[in-house]
Write a structure and sequence with these properties.
Length: 102
């Protein structure tokens, strides 16, 4: 596992928002929720919806395409139509930077 620095500052992600970034060839969605940062695979396992464009509520992200919900902390699927979760990565704010463990 390596710690990879995101090519943007933590402040570029608004509270309750997300940004998609490609790190080590993977599309990863970075979320800012209640002041903490979370990283999940961006691609919904149902039909490929972009989770970085989803809605955040109660520590979960809802896929913008058909509404599957995933835990921001673990990537576990909490509500279909997706039948499996997404990978979660440890994401840490260091100064103004964000580091993701991949
Ligand atoms: S693509 Fe995400 S719920 Fe269908």
């Amino acid at each position: 596992m390596a710690k990879i620095k995101c090519p943007f500052k933590a402040s570029e992600i608004p509270e309750g928002g997300a940004k998609c970034v490609e790190l080590e060839g993977k599309k990863i969605a970075i979320f800012c929720y209640k002041g903490a940062y979370y990283a999940l695979d961006d691609t919904c396992p149902h039909e490929g919806g972009p989770l970085s464009e989803g809605f955040l509520e109660e520590g979960e992200v809802e896929c913008p395409w058909h509404g599957a919900r995933f835990s921001l902390k673990t990537g576990e699927v909490l509500c279909g139509p997706a039948t499996r979760g997404v990978r979660a990565y440890h994401c840490q704010k260091i100064g103004e930077d964000l580091e993701v463990e991949i």
